[in-house]
Each structure stands twice: as structure tokens, then as C-alpha cells.
Amino acid sequence: MTQLDHQVHSIGPEIAGSRIFKFIAFLYGIAAYLVFFVTILYAIGFVMGLVVPKTIDTGTDTPTAEAVIINLLLMTLFAVQHSVMARQRFKAWWTQFVPKPVERSTYVLFASLSLLLLFWQWRPLRTVIWDVANPDLAVTLITLSFAGWVLVFTSTFIINHFELFGLHQVTNHLVGKQATAPRFKTPLLYKFVRHPIYLGFIIAFWAAPIMTAGHLLFAAVTTAYIFVGIALEEHDLVDLFGDDYRQYKQRVSMLIPWRRST
Description:
Elements: H1 3-16, H2 19-48, H3 64-84, H4 88-94, H5 103-121, E1 128-131, H6 135-159, H7 161-164, H8 167-175, H9 196-206, E2 210-212, H10 213-241, H11 243-251
Antiparallel strand pairs: 1-2
């Protein structure tokens, strides 16, 4: 290594720990969170067919086979990005290039961008699978779908919403506070179901008074991905928490909200 190379290499940690870098990382984390927030609000309108300019049942008409292929590719892109970037092995490699304080924010940003791409390029499949004619039942299903989204948001705040979406990490980095080691805990809803966030998504996606073929494809594929994601996530949690999580799996059901007797 030349003297110049040594100087450049040694400057890296100093820059990473500098005030200006901490402030830039903080702004980046806020920007990533805002992109996520806009994306999740759009997702609600996209799935429920409300307010947003393009929903799951609107857009360019495409031949059925082509539409199915495009939609599957879009969902696969999100699933691969979302799963691969969440794995510990990938994080260990990724943080050689992306500073650890913004790793979570970068993950959130990439996930949001892949979802925005899905919303933009989604092809509608307008064939109606079911159409609930009873107005009271239709309103009940719409309310249930909203309840699913509320469950998603509530569950994130029960654990640590801002850590889950990267703001906690960049804020700690800004003020020079060291991250604490993860502790295994099961607050409130997590005492009755291991994955209330995923349960909320499933409810939100399936509770539809009008179910088109496109909506059905979206709900079915995302539900299948949820089960794959749970398997990958729980493998990591067992590695992290060991017997605590194994006992938790035996005691609390995965998605049906009840708590088994010990």
C-alpha cells in the first residue's frame, strides 16, 4: 500500500464519524422514511381502489398472459429485494459499502422504490371473481380491510416503528448514542400472534367487496410470499435469540391470534 493509499484509507472512518456525515446520514434517513410513508399510503389506495390515480384495477389494458407475466415479475422483484437485503449474510457484505447507520434506511428506500415500480407498471386483470351485492356486507369488508392496515401500523409501533424503518439508527448516529443489543420481547399483540404485521397485510389484501383477477393474483402471491418471509425471518430470529424464540414458537401461534396455554 502506498502512502497515499494509506492516507485515503485512514480518512474513511474519520469522515464516517464526522458531524457533517452524521447530519447527511440523518437527512438521508428522513428522506428514506418519507419515501416509505408516501409509498405505504399509496399502497392502501392502490389495493383498496381509493383516491390514488392508479389502482390495482386501473391502468393500461394488456393481453392476459402478458399482464400475468409482468405482474409476477414485479412481485418477484420486490420479494427478492425484500428478502435478500434482510438476511444477515447479505447485511454483513452490504455494510462493507454502505455505512451501518444508514443500512436500514437504504433497505427501506429500496423496498419502497420496488413497490412504487410495481404500482407504476402493474397491469390490471379486470375479470370479476366475486362482487358482494349486499351493501352491509360490502361495507363490512371495506372496514375489515382498513382494520388490517390499522393492525399493520399498530404492530410496528408496538415494537419500534422508527427502528424498523431506519430513523432510530440515524438519530442515534447523529447524537453519538450507541445502539443497544437486541432483546427478545413480546409486547401486547405479540403475546397472541407471532406476526401481527403480516396478519394485517393478509386481512387488508383479501377483505375486498369486489375481487378482480388482478387483485386475486396480487393477494395470492403476496400471501405466499408472506409465508416464505416468515420462514426466513424466524430462521434468523432463532439464530439471534436461540431457545427464547423456540419456546415462543411453541407457545404462540404464527398468524391465528391466540395464545396457547403453557
